[in-house]
Amino acid sequence: MVGKGKVHNNLGELLHTKPLPTGSLKVSVDIALEKDALLPHPDDVSDATLLGDAIGSFVAWPTDLIIVGYETPTKSKAKDKGIAREIESVASQKEIPVAKKTEISKRTGAKKKNPSKYRACLHTYLETTDISDGCVRLIPMDGAIFGFEYAEPLGKEDFDQILYHTQLSVGVINTYMRYLYDKLMGPRGLEQRFSFLNPMKTNLTEMIRKPDEVRTYVVERFMADTDREKLFFLPFNTGDGGHWLLVAINPFKEIVYYLDSLHKDWTTYPAMKTIVDTIIQTVRAQRKIQVPKRKANNITWNRVECPRQRNNIDCGYYTLRFMKETLLMDRTDIPSDYFDEYRCAYYSKDQLDEIKEELCQFIIELQVL
């Protein structure tokens, strides 16, 4: 027995938008008893090849290697209300011949991964620079990302946040959004369906102090794409380095998706809701959309049951994963119980480390150091 999880298979089930391999079921991994056990079907989306890499996510597992109802000494404490928990299962590899394991290893190049490879590289690079003396590096931001061209400064504090897992700054958040724009949106042609709003211009402090400037910026972004349905990502910060959450706005359908890893709702930040509603109403007027007076405030807000953070520093990483997973699903609607492919009670350490590795690799590739 190598692990314990849940079976989630339904007729026509997909795994990461692809059909399941023949003779396999869709399984979520809760516990890895043997973290170095090879996955029978490595995950092409996350590059996971070992069972330990797949904790908290879905994998395909051969039906004949799933034992339903088996109890192990260790029980999962996950309380994900969005996933059916009644079908307990244990995954086995004891029936896989040694030759087959070798074949899997050769096919995937499976070996124990270094989960901090690029973080270690970035740390080494930084030691040779003047960053520790207070200097900064500039990340170029194309005008298409946020609607204006500028350079995002990153200093020692920002790099330390990535290397040592502390609460993320707006500079790191913006840099990851450029990563998403370069690596996901551009190659997949998603710029026509998704866009970003700059959180420096739209945080709670700015909304309270400079509401007119916030409205002007967001309305201009929305009005640039009034002829098509589009989802705008707004990583929202409660101000002065506070909590991060994601507000995703579809101004065409007048729907707002609210994803808060603390599982609060928008009533916690009434100033934010008021200004977002006002912006949507302004765009409606500029598009000359006629709405009965009794429905003038009829803007839909959907609170999404997204994965929940378990400490007071992970909110930024969760917000970044929410954007990434929405782009991977290529959907401008976000289900109230979140996407089946990524639904879980909370993100695992590996899933959060993935964000840091992507950031470090991207910064190294930009050659700004």
Automatic annotation (TrEMBL):
Domain Ubiquitin-like protease family profile: 152-326
Molecular function in Gene Ontology: cysteine-type peptidase activity
Residues making up the signal peptide according to the UniProt record: none
Gene Ontology biological process terms from the UniProt entry: proteolysis
Pfam families hit by this protein: DUF8039, Peptidase_C48
Keyword annotations of the record: Hydrolase, Protease
Family: Belongs to the peptidase C48 family.
Protein name according to UniProt: Ubiquitin-like protease family profile domain-containing protein
